[in-house]
Amino acid sequence: MLDSRSQLHDYVQHNSNRGDIQNIIDTIDKFGWTKQWLMNIGDQKGKILDEAIQTRKPKTILELGTFLGYSALRMIRLLPKDALLISVDCDSESAEIARSIFEYAGVTDRIKPIVDYTNNVIPHLNKDFNVDSFDLIFIDHSKDLYLRDFKMLEDVGLIKSGTMIIADNVIYPGAPDYLEYVQNNPNYSTTLRESTREYDDNVRDAVAISVRK
Question: Which distant-in-sequence residues (6+ apart) come within 8 Å of 206 by Cβ?
């Protein structure tokens, strides 16, 4: 029996239009609402991510947590052709499906996927991609790693004045240590955008948007 990741891959291939990013995003959302729950940011909180991208207009973006590529697609469709989007995930099976979906969407040349653990990747991003800092960072991987990786990004200098950090699922399943850190740190201005869990209107959740002062 196919797991939800393989089912989603087949569903996208059979029900969406190759090369049409928005149509592929809509198809993934339809799968999440009607077929099987998915743990990507989803369509409702996805609009919060869209607004953040449109506000910040980033040229360098780091995503922690690729899963099946949904949020990377949401972001890349709003980014200029010369933007750098790096997406990190340690799950090779999910990463392979994401790679296939990126190819189907026609964006393989615009997204740099890395299959490794974040603590192995973060210290080398500056050198490997010639990045001084990131304009925008989207955090949506293991909730217990949010704060560790955020502090690591600070330590290696990839968060500078003006960097916008967006963290999903800070209420459910929750990242309380991360939320406490960014809300009480005078170096950041943090806004909590309340919503509901992806593909589930009955569970409260929120996205935290922090900007380095």
Answer: 170, 171, 192, 193, 194, 195
